[in-house]
Amino acid sequence: NAGVMQNPRHLVRRRGQEARLRCSPMKGHSHVYWYRQLPEEGLKFMVYLQKENIIDESGMPKERFSAEFPKEGPSILRIQQVVRGDSAAYFCASSLQGNTNQPQHFGDGTRLSIL
Amino acid sequence: AQSVTQLGSHVSVSEGALVLLRCNYSSSVPPYLFWYVQYPNQGLQLLLKYTTGATLVKGINGFEAEFKKSETSFHLTKPSAHMSDAAEYFCAVTESINTGTASKLTFGTGTRLQVTL
Predict the structure, then answer these.
(1) Which end of chain A has fewer CB atoms within 10 angstroms, the N or the C?
(2) Which chain A residue shows the shortest CA-CA distance from B33?
(3) Chain A residues touching B33 at Cβ < 8 A
């Protein structure tokens, strides 16, 4: 499967635990985007990364959330000390370049549930 | 700043009928516009996009959309609905000027299409 791969597909955490969401972009893509989808809402931009660099994190909550895209390996979205309001579907997308006319290709998402 | 408004959170059509999903956008610069489809428990799949050139763009599965600058609209249509078209559809916008930074998409809240027999 050459598409965007996200894992796990479903993740259950208790309040106060940490959640780690992984995203492997399409082959050859070096631009990764994370979006969050709350129930009955559209996707909201969180962060845009290139290899080893955060380009735009204007959509990231100021606390508890962080993202990385190391030189080797997948991109990671990390949520510390999760709360009920973090329950959502988190989608990763990748593109070949950062130009705005390049389509973003989406993974199937990680559904995070907080008990 | 950009924004997208999708009128009608739920649309129901009969199989074989015309599908029309509405999208209006706001952008301070010429926009690039996209329609994505989302099936249950899946990610978003690109249906079509408008960047430059012809204002009527054709996508996959028989869908098309027309960019109308004067109306700031990018409505999605399909002449004849099929049961397999039942899904959620999202309109999205991004800026056309490549600032070298983010190419983030701004999404509408989505329209759930139901197709009945």
Answers:
(1) N
(2) A101
(3) none
Least confident of A39-48, A74-83, B1-10, B101-110: B101-110
Q: Which residue of A has its CA nearest to B6?
A: A42
DSSP at B13: E
pLDDT at B108 over 70: yes
Q: B116 and chain A: CB distance < 8 Å anywhere?
A: no
Handedness of CA A75, A80, A82, A86 (dihedral sign): negative
Which of A38, A46, A101 has the most B C-beta neighbours within 10 Å, making it the best mutation to test the interface with B? A101
pLDDT in tens, B69-107: 999 999 999 999 999 999 999 999 987 655 555 578 999
The rounded distance, in Å, linking the Cα atoms of A50 and A88 is: 24
In chain A, whose CA is at the least distance from the CA of B110? A42
Token pair, residue A26, equals 């399409």
